[in-house]
Amino acid sequence: MKNKEIKQIIFSRKKNKKWIIIALVLVLTLSGGSVATVMILHKNSSRSEFTLPDNLAGLNFTEDMIAASGVTNVGITEETFDVENLTTVLEIEEVYAASGEEVTVGDKILKLTEDSVEEARKELERALEDAELAYRTGAIEYEQDLITAEYTRNSAILTGQQAKEVYDETVASLQSAVTRAEEELQDAEDDIAEYESYVNDGSYKSYFKVDEYQAIYDENLKALTDKMDEWGISWSQVTGGSAGSVQAGGTAGNVLGSSGQDSNSSNVKTLASLYSILEQNLKDLEEAQEKYEDAVTNASFNLQTLQLKLPSLQQAVTEAKENYEIQLAQAKLTYETSQSGAERAESDYNTTVEKAKSDLAALKSTYEDAKENLELFESSVGDGYFYASEDGTILRTMVRAEQALTSDAVVFVYSNPKELTVTVSVDQSDITKLTVGDSAYVQSSAGSGYTGVITAIDPVSSSDSRTSVIYSVTVQINVEDEEDSLSANESVTVVFGMTEEEIEQLQQRQSMQGGQTQS
């Protein structure tokens, strides 16, 4: 396939056609056409204020329809260089086309310098490589983001499920800390009261039986001394010569130690035995007294220690209660936050996933745009030449040799006989019913019907009248059959607001009427 034929195929897919309304001055100056007047056939919803032309006889005109007449115009095409984001200056070496010349699809319009074309190609290839790398990296990050989002969602849900249990455990732990502090304080206060009783009311003396041992000793001492006096036996006889040990303890120290006449040996043995018991009583008394004094000393020391420790225990209780209140509020906040996080987990997950998808889609779009941009460059000027994409007559060439060809630049403007438009006037009461992109039905004076689409609505009124304000509406006509096609400067009637079914029914009636006329 020849390069020119390839260009023709590619140009058929290009998005560089921009249809414009023929300006009055341009039509008069360049095409020599006459100015066509238009007539509004429908100004409002009242059917009695207009009459349909003969070629639309039989149309059931509804309140939603608007009809107006106008004259067809040859389409004007702007041929543009649509490669985007190109910083390299493309230098025009030569321009082949001039105003007034006829061009066909694939004709060379201009030539670019080889160096600028090659430099531009390298720039676009680098941009494509960068975009592809960013997209591949983004795809990896996208998968990682999905994994992280899922983990975060599951973790939040699990945390929410465990939040009540954690909260209850925290409250129990805080309450336990307060209870322990209060128990330690109470134990200390109880010990202080106990030690005070030991020190102040002689409880230890009763506990160690000091008075009991003292009474036994006193009773046995009295019995011994009474018998010694009765039997006339001296201390030396009873003790074997020494009464010091008994006399040294308790009240026994004042017992007389004088020796008397020896009694019989039986009485001495009896008193000696009683003396041995008295010695044991003294030993028990002294031991109890020692324990009592030691216990009182220890109790006094412990009492002093506890009294010194008491303020810190009281402070510990206060701090435990304060910490309970603070930590309880924090635990409650954590619990509510966890619950809220669990409730939002799915929504947050979806938001994160959608953002990740959006970011990846943006990178993909950038990559695809870079790829399409390079393909468009290769298809439009890759071999160094810019070609015509349609047949027509050049009205004006917008570029010159030694100039730069920039993105979105208009290369030339030419008339395109395959594209016809009609501009009609619509009353202000009806203009709000129309939108660019709406379909329309176009009826020629010869009786042929065509579909069309609104391509422009002039927001500025073209009327100077204050009572009758009109707006210009441009419709592009779809002409499919070249043998029965419209031509420029033909009068047509445009009907807006018709459904596809209504258009089909009208065309069928007109076709039947045309057949009957011929017969």
From TrEMBL:
Coiled-coil region(s): 110-137, 164-198, 268-323, 353-380
Subcellular location(s) of the protein: Cell envelope
Keyword Coiled coil: yes
Annotated Gene Ontology cellular component terms: cell envelope
Principal place of residence: other
InterPro entries: UPF0194_transport
Keywords: Coiled coil
Designated name of the protein: HlyD family efflux transporter periplasmic adaptor subunit
Source organism of the structure: Waltera acetigignens
